[in-house]
Amino acid sequence: MSLLFVALALCAPVAFAVPTAATPESAPSVVRLAQDDDGAWRLLVDGAPFYVKGAGGTSRMEELAARGGNSIRTWGPGATVEETRALLDTAQRLGLRVAMGIEVARERHGFDYDDPAAVAAQLERIRGEVMAYRDHPALLVWVAGNELNLESTNPAVWDAVEGIVRMIHEVDPNHPVMTTLAGFDPALIAEIKARAPSLDLLGIQLYGDLDTLPAKLAASDWTGPYVVTEWGPTGHWESPLTQWGAAVEDTATRKAELLVERYRGTIAADRRQGLGSYVFLWGQKQERTPTWYGLFLPTGEATPRVDAMQYLWTGEWPSNRSPQVGLPTLDGRTATESVTLHPGRTYTARIEAIDPDGDPLTFRWRVLEESTATSVGGDPEEVPPDVAVRFTETAPGTVELTAPAQPGHYRLFVEAHDGQGHAAYANVPFRVQGDSP
């Protein structure tokens, strides 16, 4: 039994309630960074300390507030001013603060930071966005660009960031400005210190290597404040691989365990420079698989990671919790054993699952083609096609399936649903090769 199984069994269930709606105000919030006498950094909102208990994404904001979150992070304004103001209004009503993303062009997408006209045009576009939303009381901080260092070779990007920060400080003195970084190393931080010294704080994005953050901060001599603006499961780029290079994804249960370990061990442990975090992703997206990063399934069910975040934010588990699952097997083997099947033959797949509340579980099985995406930095991907596979349930959590007729790379997905809006999941990458029966 996993540690999370034990924790769930011992913790008494506690219901969560939607917080009292905030009263909209016309005056902008005043957000400041302050350093205590002992050197510890604090984020102050209208003079009161504010520790970020946040998530990336703008969906299901009511549930985020109900689960104990206090902030959302966006990657850019909405398609229209009206849409963005409506988002800010909703956040204000729910008592949430918004880290407002600003789209800053990336070198990997073809932007040339040696083109002064393009840089100037970008600055003016951003000026208009800042002017449009600077006075909204839900605004917490500006996030100027996302992972601009990823696959970037031109240090002039940081000169452009410095120009953006100075402009924002001029037109909006009430809100700090950060940029977010993929990874963290001494050379990168030295470049940022030299070229973008006006940044108020940094956003740091680490996944499986989040526990290395204290050492990275020390090696880089970064003594200023930071927020962990993305963290969560072990990334697909740092996970075990099958013999043919398919990344092995952790189960929903293991991901929840890792959230608790990583939050307690690194994020909550640093109250000197760390100002909180935004877990990734409060919603759902396709990135190598449809389940890798989202805390919710594509069909909307909450997963064990949602329960884990409520526990971390409030100290209390929800009154009804998500199912828990073990490692699935296909033909008696787990994903790390590089499962190979023959076309058209029948095999058995199994998964062990329990529900902490005793709710009856139902199981959903499907096969998708393996993703061939090579994108980085969360760039858009298409969901791979479904594959027509015949499943026969022989027992709860056990099916017989017929392997696809065409040789190739595939992935078997299974979900355990409790009928209460919660589910856990797992998957097994496999290949089909050889002769049919």
From TrEMBL:
Query: Which InterPro entries does the UniProt entry name for this protein?
Result: GH, Ig-like_fold
The record's section on SUPFAM superfamilies has: (Trans)glycosidases
Is Signal tagged as a keyword?
yes
Gene3D superfamilies given for it? Glycosidases, Immunoglobulins
Which residues, if any, are the signal sequence? 1-17
Keyword terms, alphabetized: Signal
**UniProt protein name:** Glycoside hydrolase family 2 catalytic domain-containing protein
